[in-house]
Every structure is written in structure tokens, then in C-alpha cells.
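Reading a protein record of the kind used here takes little practice once its layout is understood. The reader may check this reading against the record printed directly beneath this paragraph.
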Amino acid sequence: MTKLVMNAHVDDEGHEEAGHPERPDRLTAAIAGVRDLHLDDDLSFVAPYMATRAELAQVHDGSYLDELGAFCYEGGGNIDEDTYATYDSWSIAQYAAGAGLAVIEELRHRDDAVGFIAARPPGHHALRDRAMGFCLLNNVAVAAAALTAQGERVAIVDWDVHHGNGTQAIFWNDPNVLYVSTHQWPLYPGSGGAREIGGVDALGRTVNIPLAPGATGDVLRRGFDDIAAPILDAFNPTWVLVSAGFDAHRADAIADLALSSGDFAHLASTVASFAPSSRMALFLEGGYDLAALRDSVAATLATLLGREYQSEASTNGGAGAELIQRAQSERDIALQLAYEVIAAEGDS
């Protein structure tokens, strides 16, 4: 039976701002979802560590790391209208990034496990040189960069309701990373159009599947099966990392998609089919309705581990099926134009 590898608890109580939706209770809810599966001896923990400067500098500018650390040590405050930091946030963020690295290192020695990184703050909005969207350090990007440095081909699947602009930007021109995102459109941060396809050295390695407000699981499944699945299959990743945000749940007030915990479970099963054994890890991103977050974590992990769990039914009949066909068309046109430009420049 497949086992679960998690990071041991990271004390995140020092990263909190009164009234902010990105709060310690989120981590408590996610861990409760794991406990609901009663895994006993099939659950193991690895000690997280503070990611080193060298590990972080693979995806973040050194000057940004210095500025963020100094900002926190001076007491923190509001970085922008959405994102805050406290005195303790710098060390907590380093542990969150290191938690992913520790879990992946443990998975290297397993042949029957899935990883889950339950740490905060989340990371997929963090750019090389800037915090934004509740995110300070890009946890999944740190892990992906560590893997590609060792010759791995990494697929990052991001099913958070918001587009992971930071992850996309960091790997925009990296042919060894395939970035796939399903997200509500339009919505913060404003990126994630189907025409965004990657840089000149990585054309096609960015795959965006915008979803209309009110989209249900059947729409998401169609988008993933029609657009992402063939690309993932051709890429043939040696690792699959998931930016597992659960704020696309219909109960989450931060956005307007209409997914259920059963939809996340179905998507997780599909994504897992592209991952070699013990080469899949999920990183907690968004999810702000605590009951929905708990249920979605439990449903997702139960599917990956082959456990019984009574999740919500998958959803059907929502808006936006026509947007999937449009996204495929826009992507195809963008790729064709890009290749024509490259060919023309080569002839000149």
C-alpha cells in the first residue's frame, strides 16, 4: 500500500496578521485532513530544515533574500496590500521551503510513497525578486530547481484557483520544467492566459488552462484531458510536483470556481498517472475555507494512497466549457506564431 511522507510540524504561529485569510488555522485544517485518514504506520515524518541561501538563490535574487530578511528582522509589516511579514516570517518561510526539500530527499529512498508538504506561507506567487499574493518564497520552485540541477525533468501542476505567476516566470525559459496551471480567469494576479507558452528555449513548456467563474469539475477535467494530458505524456517527467491549492472549492469565498473535494481527488488521480513511483509531492498552496480545506486534503490524499474516504461527489454542469476550446485554439496559434518568428530570424 502506498505510504505518505510529510514534513514534521513547522511552528508557524509567528507568521500571522489579525484578520488575514492566510493564517495558522489553515495548516491545522490541512493536518486534520491527513489525520482523518488514520494512516498509522503508513504515515512517516521527516524533519524540515531551513533552506540554505544557495538553495533559495536558485530561484530568488540574492538582493531580494537580503531585503526580505532585513524587513522581517526590523519587525515586518505590510509588503503590499495582500502580503505581510512579521519578525518571525523569514525563518518560517525558510523552513517552509526546506520542508519540501526534506520530503523530496526522503522520497528518493522510497518506492511506494507520496509526499505532502504541509507548510506555510504558500509560495507560487513569489517572484525571483518580490513577494506577493500571500507568498514570500516560492517553495515548489525551490524544490523543482534542486531536482533539475540533478538532471531531473520536472512537471509542476498548479491547481490553485489563482494562477501561479511566480512559478511560471521563474521557469519561463527552462526546458527541463513543464508548468501546467488550471485557474479561474479573470482573477488575481492577472496572468495565466492560454497564449502564455514559455520562452524561446522552452516553447510549449508553459500550459495555462483558464476556467470561467462557476466552472465545475467536468469543465476542469475536459481542459486537463484535452490540453494538458498530451503535453505531460510527451514531456515524460521524472518528477511531478503539485501546487495544491484548494481555494477552487465551491465553499471558498476567495474566488468563484465550483469544485468539490471529489473533483480534487479525481484531478489528483489523473496527475498521478504521469508520475513515476515515489516521485510525486504535493505542496500546500491556497485554501481558506477551513472545512473545505480539510475535506479536500483528505479526499486528495486518500485517492493517491488507495484509502477509503467518503468525499463529496464530483461536480458537473458549470459554466465555461467553450473557454476550453478557445484556450486550445489560442495556445495553438501562439505556438505557430512563435515558431514562425524563430524560423524567420534564423533565415535573416
The chain has ten helices and ten strands.
